[in-house]
Amino acid sequence: MRQQIDYSLYLVTDTALCGDLGVVETVRQAVEGGVRVVQLREKEADTRRFVEMAVALVGLLKPQGIPLLINDRVDVALAAGADGVHIGQSDMPYAMARTLLGPDAIVGLSVETMEHVTEAKRLDVDYLGISPVFATGTKTDAAPPWGLEGVRRIRLVTNHLLVGIGGISAENAPDVLLAGADGVAVVSAICGRPSPLDAARALRLAVGA
Amino acid sequence: MRQQIDYSLYLVTDTALCGDLGVVETVRQAVEGGVRVVQLREKEADTRRFVEMAVALVGLLKPQGIPLLINDRVDVALAAGADGVHIGQSDMPYAMARTLLGPDAIVGLSVETMEHVTEAKRLDVDYLGISPVFATGTKTDAAPPWGLEGVRRIRLVTNHLLVGIGGISAENAPDVLLAGADGVAVVSAICGRPSPLDAARALRLAVGA
């Protein structure tokens, strides 16, 4: 049976941003601070390194019951025994990813246009990633921002769980939830901060205990 | 049961080199000219495009009984229903790839040092890719060339099928086979040639009918 996931505070990793502290230590602190879902995103690493990182995070997160999703790469998710994947519109088509991962895996899908939202209504995706909510410097190929008004519009047309991502901070996270999102995903609000632990705690307070 | 493969003439694709003719038409001509195995290698395309290319090649090659391998990406191989993968030393570890693909898939492994060859002796890989045999401009991160002497040395220490790759042409292909390889793989000797069909025919003659 598919897990019930708490998407309220969701970390997407960025290896370059994590710098000397590293992805694993950043994730450890983030989870201690209140992050409830982690997505490993690697756009530069070769497959061997990507798998090693995923295996390390599975070892850290599985004992704590925190789900780990892999960005894009179904093979890495399967090899490492991660809980699922997050896919975008230029990744593997949803139906193929679901077939390869099976019915119990978590599969999230980014939506960048209202057409994507409408198409996703017939899919049993676990959540939609509203991407980006605000303008962001982290993802250079991002689509135009949805804004809070976009989150409200998406909420009106779909029953899927919604996770906002892009330019989200402790300051604006409550607005994103009020607009209808079930959770917020962050990258630079945690990765690369002097204390990822403190940053996660501040975000945890912002989205509710 | 695992297929018996004829590795005598093996094409590795290069999308940039194939240019306006395209990968699919290049592969079509190459197979008509005598290529017996095809590896789809995509280092730039996003996952969606990679899967689309793989699906197109499966549609072309399966009816002709020509095996299609996917470079590195087990997910793309599984999604497209390809015959297997070719992995390098920085790709997924062999045991993981074999587990995900199953016992009947074809899994080839690149060897760049004698240590790789020795390590591979205990693995049920389908073939070893001797990489590179000669200096090549196609793969910019290639290891130092093995040379014909390297092929001979590998032949003495392993029972695995051997496919040479790197700088191989119709002129030097017979020497690679004489040194102990079971087949030769080419990229630029076919991709980007004015007539991939004629180029494949010349290679076919060189390696034996």
Tell me what the structure shows:
Two copies of one chain form a homodimer. The first copy, chain A, has nine helices and eight strands. Chain A is of the alpha/beta class and 209 residues long. The first copy, chain A, has a domain at 9-108 and 166-207: Aldolase class I (TIM Barrel). The longest helix of chain A is centred in the first third of the chain and has 15 residues, at 47-61. The radius of gyration of chain A is 16 Å and the shape is globular.
Q: What labels describe this entry?
A:
homodimer, 209 residues, alpha/beta, TIM Barrel, eight-stranded parallel beta barrel
Structure, briefly:
The structure is a homodimer of 209-residue chains. The first copy, chain A, has helices spanning 15-18, 23-33, 47-61, 74-80, 94-101, 114-120, 147-157, 173-178, 196-207; strands spanning 9-12, 37-40, 68-71, 84-87, 106-111, 127-130, 162-165, 183-186.
Placed side by side, the strands forming the largest sheet of chain A appear as 1-2-3-4-5-6-7-8
Mean pLDDT of chain A: 96
Q: What is the overall number of helices of chain A?
A: 9
Low-confidence stretches of chain A: none
What top-tier CATH class of the domain at 9-108 and 166-207 in chain A fits best? Alpha Beta
Query: Over all CA atoms, what is the radius of gyration of chain A?
Result: 16 Å
Protein structure class of chain A: alpha/beta
How is the CATH topology of the domain at 9-108 and 166-207 in chain A named? Answer: TIM Barrel
Could you state the oligomeric state of the chains shown? homodimer
| CATH architecture classification of the domain at 9-108 and 166-207 in chain A | Alpha-Beta Barrel
